[in-house]
Amino acid sequence: MIGVGKVKQYANVLDKPLTRNKQEVSLSAFAFLFSELVQYNQTQVENITELERRLEDAGYAVGARVLELLCHRDKGNKKETRLIGILSFLHSTVWKVLFGKAADSLEKGTEHEDEYMISEKELLVNRFISIPKDMGTFNCGAFVAGIVRGVLDGAGFPAVVTAHFVPMEGQQRPRTTILIKFAEEVLRREARLG
């Protein structure tokens, strides 16, 4: 039995329970590691598009693992099967695990039926990054777009996910919008399910 103030020691890492209380990573440690990821990839590419693609690929791997972990931990290995369900799961649950709060907004696109947007006023990955003048259109939100795409693909909702800066009146920094454009098969399946 564990007494007050005593910590149970595990002999093997496999003996540790998967369900753990709130875990937080140091913001400064994350900022340092992420800036190193950006700097390393910047030396490996020749243009901004390639750099954003590499960040998105890194985020995709994170997203696939986050989905596995959350489905196992919280849902008993059940995954969302409906479009609105997976979007609200992303907007609230995934965002809270990754960033400590729900996303600022989740909106349906007005021009296209297959588009949804998750917006964040100050996305964590863009907070500590200063972009050189020659890379003015570079958006570190590509990493988060990759995470979103990884979660969606893993749940069976293929989509093209991109990150965009959207200027806001009265704000010095633009907000970041993650644009999700679902594959047609997802919309057909959703219509079939009613």
Automatic annotation (TrEMBL):
- For this chain's UniProt record, which GO biological process terms are given? endoplasmic reticulum to Golgi vesicle-mediated transport
> Where, per UniProt, does this protein localize?
Endoplasmic reticulum; Golgi apparatus, cis-Golgi network
What's in the keyword line of the UniProt record?
Endoplasmic reticulum, ER-Golgi transport, Golgi apparatus, Transport
Per the annotation, which location comes first and is thus the protein's main one? endoplasmic reticulum
- A Pfam family annotated for this chain is TRAPP
Q: Which domain of life is it from?
A: Eukaryota
How is this protein annotated for GO cellular component? endoplasmic reticulum; TRAPPI protein complex; TRAPPII protein complex; TRAPPIII protein complex
What is said about its interaction partners and assembly? Part of the multisubunit TRAPP (transport protein particle) complex.
Family classification: Belongs to the TRAPP small subunits family. BET3 subfamily.
The identity of this protein, by name, is Trafficking protein particle complex subunit
| Organism of origin | Quillaja saponaria
